[in-house]
Amino acid sequence: KMTQQMRDLQLAQTRKPPGPSSPNAAKRLYRNLSGKFRVNYTSFDEGSLVGRGEKEKPRKSYLFQSNAALFEAVELQDLDRVREMLKHYSPEELDLNTPNSEGLLPLDIAIMTNNAPIARALLQAGAKESPHFVSLESRSLHLSTLVREAEQRVNELMAQVVNEAPNADCSEKEKQLKAWEWRFRLYKRMKAGFEHARAPDAPSSVHLSVASSSSLQVTFWEPLSVNSAVVTKYKVEWSCSPTFSPLLGEAVIDKLKDLHFTIHGLVSGTAYHIRVSAYNMKGWGPPQASMPPFAIPSNWREYDGRAPRRRGQAEALDHLLGQVKTVHQHCICHEPCKNQPQSRKHSVSKSLKHLFHPGSKFLKTLKRGLYLTAIFYKDDNILVTHEDQIPVVEIDDTYSCLLMQDFLWLTKVSCMWDDILWLRQCVTVSQSSCSCILQTRFKMLLAISQMQGLLGIQDLGQVFFEPIKDKQGNILIVTLKEVKTNQTFESVRWVPICKLQTSRKSVSSPEEPTALDMLLISVQDKLAYHQRSSHALSPGLYLGYLKLCSAVDQIRVLVPEQLPNILCHVKIRSNPNISREEWEWLQKMASVEEPVPAEPETDRSQNPLFQELQVAIKELMTLVNIPLQEAKDFRLYSQEVLDFGDKVSFLLLLPPSDDVCTAPGQNNPYTPRSGFLTLPLQIFELGEER
Q1: Which residues form a coiled coil (predicted)?
Q2: Is residue 586 part of a domain?
Q3: Of the candidates 320, 317, 314, 415, which has an alpha carbon nearest to the alpha carbon of residue 690?
């Protein structure tokens, strides 16, 4: 029988309805349990210890709960099964923090049997300890009660089996006896685990860093010894006094997926001391002081009171654009602009039918001239016309060469796809000067409008950084856009890229491929570039390498192929903030015009940023194939830290002044290894903004 204390505990515990969140899934999971999972033990209440009689169906409805399946996996110490259930079901579906009839949670069983792998898996999934174990005495009393009641049931069933004649009921009693014997051993093991455990040691290491002018970040590691009990939570405490009296605040961390914590709401310029302690079922262990012992919330901008470079820039540009539009809105030639919003209301599914309309003006072949093509792709398929052609429209059939300035202008226009009609009309007004450049750009806007109208899509995507040119005098400007929607469109043909390449190869000339042939040959590379250029860096502080090369009509910048919207870089640390003290140290380095040090000195060995930079510089020099001894002539850009939002920041490593930008014809003795490319500077700036 359950003690009255545990009966009251069960009544007080608010539980979910008997049915699981996903009953069918729970049933399938339970049916697939291995043979050892099918031990026929049930609850302590004799009324629930039934065989295969009249109460079988109600009992199955309880056993089929995912909660029961998880308890069995934990009790049988089946780590693979526990991980499988945590992977496929949410904590709510598993009733992860709902106690069983014995008042235990899955995490309680895992930690009291000292099964660290299962306990850690449960903790990372959000498992909690039972809130009813408010003291060591209450936990000890509860375990003793479970052991005593299990032993009593074993003795009762053993007497019944010995005294009864062999029959069907006796066989069922033997099964119950076997289940209770197994559970009796489990509870004795849990009780022994609790009695032998001690409070954990202090965390093995606590690292303190400045996260901002009002916050500190604390990172800590598990104790080297947990004294036979899994750590289930940590406590972070902070104070302005090294004795921690008075204590300014504390936070208990029970989500242990990542062992770090950020303390917010601190006062800039004030020193704070931090310590961290660990907890297991035997209580709190001793605290571990942080290293360094204190930190002062600050930011590098406080050094000279500098405001963020981009503060208010976006708003100012929007305001200027609004003013320009206001100036032109009264012009007669801009009246059609009022109809533009209506054209945007066409659904993609309806407008994409234009691809297959016999009257579409997409080109099948290229003549000598300038063309625009739009590639829309989804997975390994691209969108084609009703004739299995990539959509192409003509810009200018008399344009024999593409000036780089016109191309770069078009890439900027790609940031305003929705305003093409307005831009086209503005250029029309300005065309009275008969400028050749304006005429070319007006034709570009006409071609964009034509492509948007035929596709019924305003956003044509991102302009590829390099036009395609063939020997026949064709120049092809390519835009790329990924279609992520799962919606199916009527009459739209999505063609596998490989199929389109095969069909194109059969009709093209391998000796002199056209720009379209060259596009299809390299389309996978272009799609890969487009996808990579939208990737973002993980939060942290990075060391970037700025290397430029100039040509007659453009400046190009060296970038990695895997992340072409960012400079060549290595990660310095996960904390993106540069504190005021760190920035002062960097300014001192710059003021004495020291080269970037190759080896640490004694007085700098205790500077964490110095040590981090040492490692990062060596890694970056290896990445860009520059001998480490050349780093003595490199410089750190000391005018500012480049902040990209609140999560990513950059320090720049610069070559010597004469080598920052390689001039045409100038020999570059150190060529980066494969995996890099050079982008026009304006293209890189647009990609950075995206």
Answers
A1: none
A2: yes
A3: 415
Residue 41 near residue 80 (C-beta atoms within 8 A): no
Same domain, residue pair 84 and 101: yes
Q: Are 651 and 637 in contact (CB under 8 A)?
A: yes
What is the distance between the alpha carbons of residues 128 and 71, in angstroms, rounded to a whole number?
14
Nearest residue to 347 (alpha-carbon basis) of 488, 195, 205: 488
d(CA 302, CA 298) in angstroms, rounded, equals 7
CA 12 to chain centre: 41
Q: What is the CATH number of the domain that holds 376?
A: 3.90.79
**Which tokens go with 246?**
């008075």
Claim to verify: residue 385 and residue 504 sit in the same structural domain: yes
Q: How far apart are the first and last CA of the chain?
A: 67
The yes-or-no verdict on residue 491 having pLDDT over 70 is no
Q: Give the end of a domain, one of 147, 169, 196.
A: 196
What is the C-alpha to C-alpha distance for residues 214 and 212, in angstroms, rounded to an integer? 5
Asked whether 66 and 94 are in contact (CB, 8 A), the reply is yes
Task: Name 467's Cβ contacts closer than 8 Å, sequence gap at least 6.
Answer: 402, 407, 475, 476, 477, 478
313 assigned to some structural domain:
no
Q: Are 372 and 399 in contact (CB under 8 A)?
A: no
What is the Cα–Cα distance from 183 to 149, expressed in whole angstroms? 11
Which of 69-78, 182-191, 510-519, 620-629 is predicted least confidently? 510-519
What pLDDT is stored for residue 631 in this prediction? 79
Q: Where are the beta strands (DSSP E) in 450-605?
A: 462-463, 468-469, 475-482, 494-496, 540-545, 548-550, 555-560, 568-573
**In a shared domain, residues 102 and 240:** no
DSSP labels for 324-374? HHHHHTTSGGGGGGGGHHHHTTS-HHHHGGGGG-TT----SS--SSEEEEE
| Structural domain range at position 112 | 60-196
Per-residue pLDDT reduced to its tens digit, 633-690: 888 998 999 988 789 999 999 988 888 888 877 776 666 778 898 888 888 888 765 5
Cα–Cα distance measured from residue 181 to residue 150, given in angstroms and rounded to the nearest whole number? 8
Per-residue pLDDT reduced to its tens digit, 547-602: 998 877 788 899 999 999 999 999 999 999 999 999 999 998 887 655 555 444 54
Which residue, of 256, 283, 298, is where some domain finishes?
Answer: 298
Rounded Cα distance between 249 and 241, Å, is: 12
**Distance from C-alpha of 21 to C-alpha of 16, rounded to nearest angstrom:** 10
User: For the ranges 40-54, 518-532, 655-669, which has the lowest average pLDDT?
Assistant: 40-54
The full 3-state SS of 46-79, as one line of letters, equals HHHCCCCCCCHHHHHHHHCCHHHHHHHHHHCCCH
Q: Which two tokens stand for residue 678?
A: 């050079």
Asked whether residue 127 falls in the same domain as residue 255, the answer is no
**Overall number of domains in the chain:** 4
pTM: 0.75
Check the CA dihedral 385-389-391-392 and report its sign: negative
- Are 470 and 383 contained in the same domain? yes
Side-chain-side CA neighbours of 586 within 13 Å: the count stands at: 23
CB-based contacts of 315, cutoff 8 Å, min separation 6: none
